Amino acid sequence: MRTAALRATVVALALVTTTVAAPQVTAKTNSVPAITDSLAKAISLELTGKATRDTLARIATVDATDPAELATTASLTRSVAQANADLLVAKGLPAGSARLARIRLGHDSMARSLREGAEPVVAAAPNDDNAREFTGYFPGGKPLTLSTGTIPTRPVVFAEVDVTTAVRLGTEMIQRQTGKPVVTEAGGYRATQVTSIRFGNVQEPWFKGDAEIFAITGGFDHNGDVRADTLTLPYLDDENTTYYPNQIVLHWNRYKYSAADIVFMEDDGDTNYLNLAKALVAALAYILDSGVYVPLVNAILDAMPGSWWTDDPDFVDACYTITRDTNATLTCAGGNGTVGVRPFWVNER
C-alpha cells in the first residue's frame, strides 16, 4: 500500500494534469469479500457430511482448486455457481467469461493434519493486508475468530478469487478501453525487454497466497494522445526474489516519444477492472501533448479511486521515463522495485 513517504516521492516528480473524479465501487453486499465469505459459509455447512469432508481432504492444497470439485451436494453446487456469477459482476468482467471461485489450503503445514482427519475451518481470505483477525467457519457453520499474526495449526481452507485469471481478463479489458492503433516499421519494431525484476515487498501476507502483479504503461501515441497499455507478470509470486523473464514490456511503435512510464500494481482480489478502465480513460483523456514528454505515473495513480488504496489494487512501485535506448538496471521511484531493461528488436517474421 502507498505510504505517505512514497506518495510524497511520487507527487514530487513533475506532472501537469487535470484531476478527474473516478468512478467508485458501490455494491458493498456484492463485494468480493462478501461473496467469498458467503461461499466459505456454504462450504462449511456441507462439511458435516463425510463425503464432502473426505473430498476436501483429498483436493485441498496450497494451490487453488475449483470448489466445484467439492460440490458433492446440489445445495453446494448452486452456491458455487452463484459465487462464480457474482464474482464476475464484482470484478467488472463479462458474464460467463470464467469461473473465478477458488479454494486453497492456508499453508502447506496444514495438509497432513487435514488428511488425518483434523476438523477444518473455512474462511474468506482477509481482503486487508493489515487485518489482525478474520472469521472462519467450523463444519456446520459455527463462526470462529482467527488471528493473522501466526499460522494456525488447525487446517484453514480459504475461499477466494482466481486472481491469475481475473488479472488476465481484466488487463485485456483495460487494453480494449485504452489501447489505440500502432505504427509499424519496415521489418519489425523496437521494444524494451525486462531482463530481470525484483520487488522487496509484493504486499502479500501468508493468508493471501502468491502475489498477482500487473503493470500499466503510459506514453503518448503518434497522434499526441495519452495511451495506457497493460501487461501481466504471472511469474512474479514472491518478494525478495529475482526473476529473469525476458518479457517485452514497452512496444515503441505505439509511442510518439522515446520515453514511457510503468506502474506496477498487485491485485488482492477485489479490483473492479471495468471501473479501473473507465477511470483511466477519464483521467488520461484530459492530458494534452505539450510537445515534450511528461511523466504519466501521477495520472495513472490519480485515476484510482481513493478507497482502493486501502488494499486493492496495491501500488507496488513505479519506474519513470524508461527510454527506447535504456540499457540498465533501474531502481524504481519508491525503492521497492529493481528492474533490468534493455533495447530489443522485434522482427516482423
Automatic annotation (TrEMBL):
Residues of the signal peptide: 1-21
Alphabetically ordered keywords of this record: Signal
Keyword Signal: yes
A family per Pfam: DUF3103
InterPro entries reported in the protein's UniProt record: DUF3103 (IPR021452)
Protein name in UniProt: DUF3103 domain-containing protein
